[in-house]
Amino acid sequence: MTPASRSTPTDDSTTVSRHALHALVASALGYAMDGFDLLILGFMLPAIAADLHLTPAQSGALVTWTLAGAVAGGVVFGMLSDYFGRVRVLTWTILLFAVFTGLCAFSRGYGDLLIYRTIAGIGLGGEFGIGMALVAEAWPARLRARVSSYVGIGWQAGVLAAALITPLLLPVIGWRGMFAVGLLPAVVSFFVRRHVEEPVLFTERRAAVANTEPATRKLPLKRLFDDARTARASLGVIILCSVQNFGYYGLMIWLPSYLSKTFGYSLTKSGLWTAATVLGMAAGIWLFGVAADRFGRKPTFLVYQFGAVAMVFVYSNLSSPAALLIGGAVMGVFVNGMLGGYGALISEIYPTEARATAQNVLFNIGRAVGGLGPVAVGALAARYSFALALAFLASIYLLDVIATLFLIPEKRGAELE
């Protein structure tokens, strides 16, 4: 095999700058659109409810069915990506998401808006895992965790953009105009088709699989439980993703209310203090990628998990504005910084013909479990206190520690299969 036909990315700077960089930008932008969309929906719910006369249950269902669509889309598009290609299917997901987000602007009532949001969610769910697989296959092993963390930072960038743009635009263009802004991902999809190529690793592996007997091929979903070792790793990844999403949604949904009801912060002040936590999360994701490439996946996960246990508990006992501002940022580093490690970790455990399936299925199972986080925190806060609810969140990260120690393999620097 000649150097030009190698099935893994090389350290050649031309390859990285021309192909890998385009893959990274496309993947990060796609995931940024996900974060942007979900947060602007939260901002717009009061205006939508008032205009379309929605009940609180119907307003909540718009969010619930968007996430339900994301879980379904993650499973379906992950498998399609392993069959038909990362770039092609990533384009499908972005276009589906963009078109049906745009159609929400023309909704006449609850029924059609719910349908549009669910289908948009299906497109949204596919972008994370496909983007992570695309980046992992396009970049060299020594930078794999770092560039995967950049994709994760895309979500935080989208959230921050929504937090800054929505209050300015919503009073001017209304909720229908904000949904029209959701057509912007179509521009990203055009970029993907024009400037991003399928990784060499994927095209070579697909050709090799095509030459095997159909009867001997396994469905991508079955490859996640191929043998005892892989099944253990899959269970471990599910636990990691579930705890991370549970903690993230449990904190982010209730943090503004915690600051407002416990300390009397205004809406603006609560938003600013929450933004500090979000910035900490972005910094934590970046730092995780750097550390994981240098010291290994498992040691970095363990440091972050113990850090999350400590900082969520510490934060629940803070009271002064300065301590809450700084403590929130440090807590964000550990609580959501682990998002920077899933892309590289999952990519290294599973073969190319099941990599996108693994990324999307395992992470979206975690997202589904994580959706219970706000419910659990809200129930504990109502019965006891927010401080106790946060202390409960701190304890769940101990499950992550156990899973990392006994179920997760260390594959830093491994060439992808």
From TrEMBL:
Q: Name one Pfam family in it.
A: MFS_1
Topology of this chain in the membrane: Multi-pass membrane protein
**UniProt keyword annotations, A-Z:** Membrane, Transmembrane, Transmembrane helix
List the Gene3D superfamilies hit by this protein, alphabetically: MFS general substrate transporter like domains
Residues passing through the membrane, by range: 21-45, 57-77, 89-108, 114-135, 147-167, 173-192, 231-251, 271-289, 301-318, 324-349, 361-380, 386-408
For this UniProt entry, the molecular function terms from Gene Ontology, in alphabetical order, are:
carboxylic acid transmembrane transporter activity
Q: What is this protein called?
A: Major facilitator transporter
Species of the source = Caballeronia hypogeia
Q: What is the lineage of its organism?
A: Bacteria, Pseudomonadati, Pseudomonadota, Betaproteobacteria, Burkholderiales
